[in-house]
Structure formats: structure tokens, C-alpha cells
Amino acid sequence: MTARTLAPGAGAAIGRRPVPWSRLAWVTLRQRRGLLIGGGALLGVFAVYMVVMAVIQHNAYAVVAACHPAAALKCQQLNNSFYRSYWGGGAGPVIAGGGAQTVSSLLFAIPVLLGAFAGAPLLARELESGTFRFAWTQGAGRTRWALSTLVLPAVVLVAATGAFTAIFYWYFWPFLADNQVSEMLPLAFALLGVAFAAWTLLAYSLAAFLGTLFRRTLPAMAVTLVGYIVLAMATALAIRPHYATPVTVRGWNNTSAWIMSQWVKAPDGQMLSQSAVNSLSQHAPPSVQNSSSPDAFTTWLTQHGYTLWQSVQPNSRFWQFQLTEGAWLLVVSSLLIAATVWLVRRRGA
Amino acid sequence: MNVIETSELGKRYRRRWALHDCTLTIPGGHIVALVGPNGAGKTTLLTMAVGLTRPTAGTLTVLGGEPPGSPGALDHIAFVAQDAPLYRTLPVRDMLHVARNLNRRWDQRRAEDRLGQLEIPLSQKVGELSGGQKAQLALTIALARRPALLVLDEPLAALDPVAREDFLSSVVAAAEEDGISVVLSSHVLADLERVASYLIVLTQGQVRVSGPVRDLLDTHGAGLEEIALRHLRAGVPSSSRTEAGQ
Fold this sequence. Notes:
By secondary structure, chain A is mainly alpha-helical. Chain A has helices spanning 21-31, 33-66, 73-88, 100-107, 110-129, 132-135, 142-177, 186-189, 195-214, 217-239, 274-283, 286-289, 296-303, 318-346; strands at 247-250, 257-265, 307-314. Chain B has helices spanning 42-49, 71-76, 92-101, 108-117, 131-144, 161-178, 189-192, 213-220, 224-235, and strands spanning 2-13, 16-27, 31-35, 57-62, 77-80, 149-152, 181-186, 198-203, 206-212.
């Protein structure tokens, strides 16, 4: 043994403390600089648009809200024109072809876009380019490196999308304010509360996991996109309605609830089938059948002793539903990140 | 202290044994040439030694008994993989900073001095460096970690003759200055002949020759090239020579 080789015990000379997280964080942030700029720009463009529109909409809505009595024709016309301009878009003075409805549906794509672009390359790029052979043989060790690489962008994403939700609330408030749009509707629910950030986190974790599994960025992005759409649809259609037993309420005019189903009961309390309702509508007097009012038939039904029923998830359950969805998305995301770390630990060169 | 010690070490990829029944002791203080044809198992052996891959069979320890990939081993072994993978989009300065932040031991001045001597600008992007400069940058980063053992996998394969010469003299100079052990692999013995003080010949996943160059020359009474060739031929049936990719 020559004197010029260093004994392994020399490790004691540099202390037993591992490489600090703050230094790993620097590495992660430096490597994700492009993502921070790109993702920030995407959210920023929408945020600026929404802030501008929020100011305009709040002013326009103030006029609608100040109109009394609300049932007066003049007020109804004001309200309709507000919705035509800012909800449906097209005829609006500021926006052509857009409107809150269009903007909301565009925002639906943001969680999966942000998540897939941020998550998929994290490990896939390292595995594709071979740089994992550099990263995993440094003194920090691959587990700490992987944790920093995965967790820090997740925290940044959740913080950014959470802040974005706050701006969206402000922008969207006039439509929620008079219950024209229920915050329980799938269209609004995923963009409010904790859901927007939680779905972004899910897309990110899924993309990171698939990127590590496939060792390829693009296939991971593609499968993330498909998987996300399937899961988001399944959640809105089949999972979310079961967070709580729906409430049965009388009448078909519930605007402050998410409607699950509706039916008609005969005067004797018997529930009518769809075909029975159809045949009733054909036997209604011509004045009802030819009426331009959509409520004519239901009004006629109630006048003849029929009762209208709905099964609904009321708006009062909004936060219960948000927290339920946020919780399971957080659990699934954490499991995906843990599985990714596990893959990194066992993956060979 | 033995820098690498293996006993009946084996690694199987699906059905093929990349390395089989490999028992080997590499003492410290040498520049070790690990030589063998493509697919002989050189990369497999080295990636197991640096903790990137786990053995299928047998045991492997580094730096006098440390398990590969353990914190103690990672701190004291610097590895440069084939083609010197580094982050291409980063400027050299930030690449250094990444390496610095991923290690507990780091000599920034040494790294900057070396790059200064090599005239590699800190503001240049890693992806814009020439092959020789990139290899030198990877070596600089490895040396700035002040390792006890430097492991280089096919470091010369992608370099032109001048860059090879420069790279090898850098390695020899560093080994002498810092007193570190070096293991280099190559499929061309001629590359390493002049610098190696210890030779290991590997073919078809098995060790054919292992020993200090001086002893090998004494016992065989032939040039290093000839010794290696003789063992390479002995290990490979000339009729059915296959060169599986690594």
C-alpha cells in the first residue's frame, strides 16, 4: 500500500453530513430554468388577460347588480347582455369570439400541459442523454438527487397554479355571484379551489413516473396526455358524483347545485319513465307545445298535479368536494413520485 | 488498500452474461489499463464499481471494503462515463457549479485553473465545446472532486490523436500530483501502453491477465502489446469470434 492513496476513512475528515438540500435545490432550479420561464410565461399571459378582463367584468357587473328590482325587464335585459358579452363571447365589445366560457375551456388544458412538459423530461432527459451517469455518481447520491429533482418543481408548480387559481377566482366571480353558473359544475370545479393545483400535480407526477419508466420524453408526454384526459373525464363523470350522496330536491330550477338527474312524478306519486314523459308532451295542448318558453311544458305539468324532482350536489358541498378531490390526487401523486424514486434507486446503467 | 476487489462477480443482462465469474484485485496507487474488445464487459465492470449497476452474482467492494454506491464510495470515486456525458445546455461555469453543489468535496480554484490552462472559456456552452475540450472538462470536474480513485470508461474513444495525447498526459500528471489511483478502459491497448502501470485483459466477460506491467514484462519476456494479444487470442476462439455491442 503506497502512502499516496487516500484511505477511505478520510470521509470522516469532511464530516458525515450529506450534501445540503439547499445546494441540491440550486442544481434543480438551474436545470429547470427553461421550464420556469416557459411555464411562467404561459401562466403569465393568461393571468394578465384575466386581470384586465376581471376589471372590465367587475365594472360591467356592478351595473347589473345595481339594477332593481332584479326581475324587471330592464334588469333582465342588462343581465342577458352581460352574459352575452362576457360569458358566451362573440358579441362582446372587448373580446371577439372569446368569453369566460371559452377561456375556462382553454384553462382546462393548462394542468396537463404544464405537468407533462415539466414532469416528463425530468428523468427521461437524463436517461436519454446519458447524463444520469454523471448525476448519479456524484457525492450527493442518487436518492437525494432524485428527491430534489422531483419534489422542488412539484412545490413550485403547486404554488404557481395555486396563485393562478386566486386570479381566476377574481376573474370568474361575477358569474358565480348570482348563481348563474354553479361552482360545482365540472366546467368550473376543476379551475377553482384546490383542484387546479392538484390536477397539475397529478399530471406532473404521472409524466415524471412514465418518463423514468419509458426512459423517453415524448412517449411519456403522449401517454400522460391520454391518461390524464381519461382520468379527468372519469373523475368528472363517474367518481366525483360519489363523494357524497346526492340530495333529492323538488323543482327543476336549481341553479345553485350540480344536477345529477331529474325526473317527473305522476299525481299518484308514481315515477314516470322517459317515454311516458314524451307521450305526455305530445298530448299537451297546442298552446303549450308551440310555446317559445322552455318552461311552458313543465308549468303545464305542475298545473296538472305532476311534480318535478332533481337529484343534486348542492353548492354548499363545494369545499367538501374540493378537499376530497385534492386529497386523493395528492395521495396518488405522492405514490407516483415515490415510485419514481424507487425506479431511480433500482435502475441500472 | 485495494481500490477494486471482486469475487466471482457476475452480471447478466437478460440471458447474456456480460461479466462472468470475475475475481480480481486492483491495488491502489496505479494507473490501471482495463483492456479488451468491445463487449468484453469492461463497461459492465466499471459501472458496477461506481455503483450505477448492481451485480447479479458475486461480490464487489471498492476503496478497501466499501460497498459501491455507498456515500463513502461516492465521495471518493470520480467517474467519467464513455463520451463524457455533461449537461450540454449549461455554460461551463454553471456546469462547474452544478458539480460543486452535488459534492461535499470540491476544489473550485483547481477547476478554474485547469480550465484556464486549457483555454476553455467559462462562458462557453458545454454543447459547443470540441470533443477534446469536453473530455478535458469532464476530467477537470472529476479531479476537482479530489477523488481517491478516478474511473474513466473509454475516455479516448471519441478523441482525435492530438486530443488523446493531451488527455493522457493530463491524467498522468494528475495521478502524480494528487496521488490518486486511476482505472481507464480501452479497446485499444496501444493507447494506454505508455501510461499504464497495471494491466487487466478482459474478454468475453472473463479476466485473462491481471498484474503490474513490470511483472508481466518480466515473466512473459515480450512487449505489452504482444502479451495482451496472446491472451486475447487465447480467450477467443478464432473461428467464432463475435463482437457483441456493449
